[in-house]
Design a protein that fits this description.
The complex is a heterodimer. Chain A contains 9 helices and 14 strands. By secondary structure, chain A is of the alpha/beta class. In chain A, the strands form 2 sheets. In chain A, strands 1-2-3-4-5-6-7-8-9-10-11-12 form a 12-stranded mixed beta sheet, covered by helices on one side. In chain A, α9 links the parallel β11 and β12. In chain A, α2 packs parallel to α3 and α8 runs parallel beside α9. Helix content of chain B is 34%, strand content 26%. In chain B, α1 links the parallel β1 and β2. Classes of the chains: A alpha/beta, B alpha+beta.
């Protein structure tokens, strides 16, 4: 699986792609800046379009910004890097006093494989927008995101085909007192995932983010090992939803979850895209909470080995 | 007045056309096979009566017809220096097991058959032809079609000049500033022999329908694969590109396509008599969309509903303009992609035999029935 379509809504509003001298600014809309192939052929840049957007008379009302593909399609070398895109948004902070939602990297498979996205240190972006409530990023090559202090951030999502453990550790050590939703796509080792279950220990103690309601340890190749450490952790007493979907969770992890009394106090356990056997699925269905077991996967046998694949990696 | 098809016995295109004739109460078409034409067994003009309608169909997938075409094209291809199977080896070549055809050789054999058809028709009593032989010959050459469309100002992806191999390809990509290219045999069809290649900094990835299998004496034979293969190891990609470049290639920019329902898609629009008619969306998770196995076809109404009439009409207009480059053809199948906001259609291919669309109707007619109606319109309704 990969990601084939741009998002159509973000931050509670519909998203439109901003095209200079074509799109007209509407207050109840969030905008995406992206450099498409044809624009690149015409010499247009991401920056030009962003600067055009922030010159709109009502730009102060903008609440959500979606950063789409920024690289020049026709350049052998990268001209517009994630650094310069970040810097433009940071520099625009005074024009965007109401910005509350940023998605840095609404990039689909036709633009770049998720594992090829070259991103950067995005800490300054969080620091430049103290009112930010949602921060989502896709792609993790070069990503740095913490440790950071931010008093208003409620939702943090990092989508990756293979997330470096340093990013996980830094986020967990961040000071985010308002955080309610924390979601990682951990990805596959072949695409750069290096996390170990131990990396999550401080998070699982449950005191890092006191307002956490949703924890997503998604798209993970170590889902069984993670489930074993998550199953009886104090963080489950705080959160309402545990999301371990899109990964390689099988019977070992599922049984660990079943044994835990804390799991039964959740509102929802999302395990869709999994490798759990029918028998264990039956056990999970008996839990007194909502359990999503859709999209069951089959292991693949190849070269005398058994393979399980996460949903998003390449 | 009756219909005559040049095609292959048992081919679904022939039976489909006869079904359409039957729906008008017309008798089945007379069939002249490529095999008999190539063997010199028939004198085409003898089979044509005044006022007949002639339809040149695809030779199809019939093994013996395919071998006959390869025989007919062998000498000319060997002279040109493209990959060719010598006449003595043709009957042993694993065509029926997915062996990749030497498309130039097949094409030159096909052209040989088309020339015979043209010569036969020149001697025949006056008749109508649905799509003339010389247009079909050109439509089976992606390089020529691309050039003609470009000259006509139709939106087509940028193309690369011919390459000698992988190193040359990468050099051309640098010079022409392309990070993503499609490599297609100039005379291929149905996704056979194709590769979609993408590079970005240290990354490289090729998606292909070809697999090289080592045979005796360190020789490689290429096979079509049913499953799409992804290659990430540069030496493997290079070896395959080197192999493919022994056939005549058309290489063009691989444009990002629009998404729909968690897939990307392109469109096939059949233009009949200058009108955009039967249209389908082809949804895929893979850049090579003409593999029937992996794709989902969706009724065009879903797209029209999603993008609105205005943008849909712009797409149709582009397809009609591309078809107008072949004004003597009654019908062609135009493949288009649109960009992420559905506003820029690009022509991917124009197909001479692009009207095989089962279960797709327009105004209650199949493609074949619509073509027959178009042919007979002057007879049925002489005032319009």
């Amino acid at each position: 699986m990969a990601i084939y379509g741009h998002i159509s809504a973000f931050g509670g509003k519909p998203v439109e792609t901003w095209i200079p001298s074509k799109t007209s600014f509407k207050p109840n809309t969030n905008y995406r800046i992206l450099l498409d192939y044809e624009q690149a052929e015409e010499g247009i840049t991401w920056k030009q379009q962003f600067l055009d957007l922030i010159e709109q008379p009502e730009i102060k009302t903008l609440e959500g910004l979606v950063v789409g593909y920024w690289r020049d399609w026709t350049a052998a070398e990268e001209i517009e890097s994630a650094d310069s895109v970040r810097d433009e948004i940071v520099a625009a902070r005074e024009k965007l006093p109401n910005l509350r939602h940023i998605f840095f990297g609404d990039i689909v498979m036709e633009e770049s494989e998720i594992s090829w996205i070259e991103t950067t240190d995005l800490i300054q972006l969080l620091e430049a927008y103290p009112l930010l409530e949602t921060f989502k990023c896709r792609g993790s090559n070069g990503l740095k995101l913490g440790p950071v202090t931010h008093n208003n951030l409620k939702m943090l999502v990092i989508e990756s085909g293979g997330l470096n453990r340093k990013v996980v550790q830094d986020v967990i050590m961040s000071t985010l007192p308002a955080l309610e939703h924390l979601e990682f796509y951990l990805g596959a080792e072949n695409y750069g995932a290096t996390s170990e279950p131990d990396d999550f220990t401080p998070l699982l103690r449950g005191d890092r983010f006191p307002r956490l309601k949703y924890l997503g340890l998604r798209d993970s190749e170590i889902a069984d090992d993670l489930a074993a450490v998550v199953a009886n952790s104090p963080v489950l007493d705080t959160i309402e939803i545990l999301d371990m979907s899109l990964g390689t969770l099988g019977d070992d992890g599922a049984r660990a979850l079943l044994k835990s009394d804390r799991i039964k106090k959740l509102k929802k356990l999302d395990l869709h895209h999994h490798f759990i056997s029918k028998e264990v699925m039956e056990e999970l269905r008996k839990l007194p909470i909502e359990v999503d077991l859709s999209d069951a996967q089959e292991e693949e046998r190849w070269n005398d080995r058994v393979w399980r694949f996460v949903a998003v990696s390449e | 007045m009756s219909f005559l098809i040049i095609g292959t016995e048992g081919d679904p295109r022939v039976s489909g056309f006869n079904t359409a004739l039957d729906s008008y109460g017309l008798p089945p078409a007379q069939l002249i096979t490529y095999a008999s034409l190539l063997a010199g067994d028939v004198h085409l003009a003898d089979h044509i009566a005044e006022g007949d309608l002639i339809r040149i169909e695809s030779p199809g997938r019939d093994l013996n017809t395919c071998r006959a075409l390869l025989h007919a094209g062998a000498a000319a291809t060997l002279r040109e220096g493209y990959r060719a199977i010598p006449p003595d080896d043709i009957d042993r070549y694993p065509i029926d097991r997915g062996g990749l055809l030497p498309f130039r050789q097949w094409y030159l054999g096909f052209c040989h058959a088309l020339v015979r058809i043209e010569a036969g028709l020149a001697e025949a009593p006056s008749h109508q032809i649905m799509n003339p032989a010389h247009d079909i010959a050109e439509l089976f050459d992606k390089v020529a079609v691309h050039k003609l469309l470009q000259q006509a100002g139709a939106p087509v992806p940028r193309s690369l000049p011919p390459i000698t191999g992988y190193d040359d390809l990468r050099q051309a990509m640098r010079i022409h500033r392309l990070q993503r290219v499609f490599i297609k045999p100039a005379h291929g069809s149905s996704g056979a022999g194709m590769m979609a290649l993408q590079v970005a900094g240290p990354h490289i990835r090729a998606i292909t329908t070809v697999e090289l299998v080592k045979g005796p004496g360190q020789t490689w034979t290429a096979f079509n694969t049913r499953q799409i293969r992804t290659l990430r190891h540069e030496p493997h990609i290079a070896r395959l590109v080197d192999y493919l470049s022994h056939d005549r290639l058309h290489i063009e920019a691989w444009l990002p396509k629009a998404g729909f329902d968690d897939h990307t898609f392109d469109l096939r629009i059949v233009v009949i008599g200058g009108q955009s008619r039967h249209s389908v969306m082809r949804l895929s998770k893979c850049p090579i969309t003409n593999l029937h196995l992996l794709n989902r076809r969706l009724d065009i109404s879903h797209l029209v509903e999603h993008i609105g009439e205005e943008r849909w009409h712009a797409i149709q207009k582009t397809a009609v303009a591309a078809a107008a480059c072949y004004p003597d053809c009654l019908y062609v199948g135009v493949d288009l992609a649109v960009n992420h906001n559905y506003e820029r259609p690009t022509i991917l291919e124009v197909n001479a035999f692009g009207d095989l669309l089962n279960n797709v109707q327009d105004s209650g007619l199949s493609t074949y029935a619509a073509e027959i109606q178009q042919c007979l319109m002057p007879i049925l309704t002489p005032t319009t």
